[in-house]
Amino acid sequence: VARAAPQQDAEHQAAGETLKQKPAASDPKAAPPRKLPDHIQRAAEFLYSKQRPDGSWSNGSNWDLGVTALCTWSLLECGVDRGRPQVAKALGYLRTKKPTRTYEVALHTLALCVGGDKNDMPLIQNNVRALEKGQIGRGPGKGAWSYGSGIDLATGDHSNSEFAVWGLAAAADFGAKVQPATWEMAYDHWRQTQLG
Questions:
Q1: Taking the C-alpha atoms of 182, 2, 161 and 111 in order, what is their torsion angle to the nearest 10 degrees?
Q2: 4, 21, 67, 109: least surrounded by Cβ within 10 Å?
Q3: What Cα–Cα distance (Å) separates residue 90 from each residue in 19, 24, 118, 143, 152?
Q4: Residue ranges of the alpha helices (H) in the chain?
């Protein structure tokens, strides 16, 4: 998917290509599950042991949606088969949620994109709209993102902004539409805030 912002680094392009190369869950030609390296298998088993019956994970705070999306994304990125019951249940949980805070919207997007099901496109496109709406449009934080849902910093927050860009990049690579102005403002913000 072409982007309006011409300044794309090689790492960003490589990440997008990786996402595009992963077979969709419904693809009958998808490769059979491969054996995971022992250290990844142990980490995955740990996450399975902490998963709740509804498919979610919690860290004891009110960020369960973000934590669940992060665990799901991590499992899939590490090569866990998307048809595995724990992953399928986690994706099912995520499909019932509508994230509002920047971290959660971005992670929700990343998890659904790497999940590879084109039926999730409406949810992904809605997340793109939410991220675009949450981008700061003026002032010292123009082009950045803050936490969302009333926890906003006029200057933005670079951690939230980084996650927002990751989510938008994954969505664009998946086929969602991202406005050119979104990329332009984000690029200008990062360029202007680099240490000289």
A1: 120
A2: 21
A3: 19, 16, 17, 32, 29
A4: 10-21, 38-50, 64-77, 85-95, 102-115, 121-134, 158-174, 180-192
